[in-house]
Fold this protein.
Amino acid sequence: MRILNLHISGFGKLQNQDFSFSPGLNVVYGHNEAGKSTLHTFIRGMLFGIEKQRGRASKNDLYSKYEPWNASGTYEGWMRVESQGEIFRIERRFVKKNQELRIINETLGREEEASAALLDRIRCGLTETAYNNTISIGQLKCATDGGMVSELRNYIANLNTSGSIALNITKASAYLKSQRRQLEAQLMPQAALNYTTVLGEIRKLEQEISSPEYENQLSSCRDKKLQLKQHLEEKQKEKENLIQKAARGKQLLAGSQFSDRSSISSCLDQTKELFHNYEETRSICQKSPFKIRGLLLGILAVLLLGGAGALSAFPQFLQGSPVTLPVILGGMGAAGFVCLMLALFQAAKGRSLKKKMERESVRLKDILKQHLGDCDLSSEAMDAFEKRMGELIRLCDAVTQSEQTLLSLSEEIAALQKEEDTCSDELEKQQRTQWELEKKLEHLAACKTQAEALKKTLTENERVQEEIDAIDLAQDTMTSLSTSIRDSFGLYLNKTASQLIAGITGGIYSSMSIDQNLNVFMNTPTRLVPIEQVSSGTMDQIYLAVRLAAAKLVQNGTDTMPLIFDDSFTLYDDDRLKTALKWLAGAYQNQIIIFTCHQREAQLLTANQIPYQLVRI
């Protein structure tokens, strides 16, 4: 997920202000009290909302702190984000009596239900607590080194034992108990007894009907016809489903302007070739300095032609020269003319390649926009396009297979209909005049229907009981595993934080370890260094590594949230800050937002030619 832009109608001291953020690094600069913390809190509020506390707590809660200063009552705003290729606009009102939340899917052009699942997807599976303790990163703000060590240990302890881990044992156990009560309510304990009684009645009726006085073929004919009818209905439904499936497939193919497999393959091959040509043209344009060579040749041509003109005007400069004036003027004119032609050729070649690249770019963008809804020209976009074409090819094959299956089904249905007609003719020949037999048959049919219903009930009882047994097993297993899951979380945290610490410290430390007593050590080639022996700046780097590692572990894995730093580098000297910024720009592929009241972050980024967007408040 990344933040595109936002609008604050009224939030704290900020009124009717808009802010935009680029996909990579963003530096939000402002003096103290300019509103950086207000903007930071607004982003958090748009994602998780802001509830007004009750009683004494309401006097100093976030809701009261960030109520609009102008008392206009406009306590709201909106924020546009991109999540998994779709753009959503989140609109929130924070007013206590009207906390409205709307989510508009701008990609699909419709308003989505603001469900917990959708919010969980946008927030990458983070709760508000996990958000505040992972990707929203502030300064440790400890007065002493000892205080910083204590803060860091407390943070790791919370991660190791709290609900920030993916599995919440208490909630899961309560949910399983609730599910068990619901399943127990679905059981029908009398179903087995009723089923046995009905089966006994059926056997009694069948014995009576099978006596010599009722011997006839009506029952078998009816049963056969009923079976044929059921079989025919199943085949008809299967055929209708296949027809609908094939129609949907054709509609999807037609919507993508394809008719068959060959047209898809042709489009894919043409697009890949076009992208290859575009990449080659762009590479040539980037590597070949046509403008510089053309300019140099043009200057040389002007100098040569100008020199020839000057010598022609002042021939006395060549008095005593062994070479005659016409030869010199002819040579300089020819050389100047050649340089001029070469300059024009370079300029024309550069324009030609640029126009070719633009034409190929327009065609590629049109194709990608048509099939992906995205005009981004990149290898990732082409991979997505090939994946889309592969899906369409598989869809085309499925449609072809459905059509072949339809032909076979039509033949089966025709044969069944013919057999059903024959059975009807035989049934019409049967004459039954005994009213008692009809009554018995009706009663038998009713009993069979009841038996089928009871049989389904018994099957459902077995299924429900299996689920109850599974819930009981899950409860026992979850209880036994909860301790080992909690203990193993520290190992995962060690591994992930160690992968990050080398980049953040610029290779000074390659890894870190957290023991069972939550003591933190930095690994060096010769020994383990306790964090009490490192500087405050290094501790802050360790703190950053642990938070980033925790963020990686607790997010859902399909997407990542932006990293937000709020004056997080106060204890960093210029070298540490330079190392951290360069590492962040290369290691974290998603959006990064840095709130700061200092200009050195922007200066270091500019000096090291690291792309970023500067947002001023």
About this structure: Confidence is low (pLDDT under 50) at residues 141-149, 161-167. The radius of gyration is 39 Å.
